[in-house]
Amino acid sequence: MRCAVIGGTGYVGVRLVGRLLAAGHDVTVLVRTPGKLVATGWAERVDVVPGDLADAGAVATLVEGADAVVHLAHALEHDDFPDRDRAAACLVDAAAADAGVRRLVYLGGLRPSSATTSRHLSSRAEVADVFLDGPVPTAALEASIVVGSGSASFEMIRYLAERVPVLPAVPWLAHRTQPVAIADVLHYLVGALDLPDDVNRRFDVGGPDVLSYLELIRRYLRLAGLPQSAAVPVPVPVPPGGPALAGRVVEALTPLSRHLVTPLIESLSEDLVCAEDDVLSVIGPPPGGRTTYDAAVRAALGLRRAGVPDLDDPALASPADPAGSGGAVYRWSTGEPCPADADVLWSVVDGIGGDTGWYVPLGAWTLRGWADQLLGGVGAYRGRPEGRPLEAGDVVDGWCVESVAPGTALRLRSELRQPGTTTLELAVDPDVSGHGSHLRLAVCFAASGLAGVAYGTALRAAAPALFGAMARGITARAASM
Question: Is the pTM of this model over 0.70?
Answer without folding.
Answer: yes
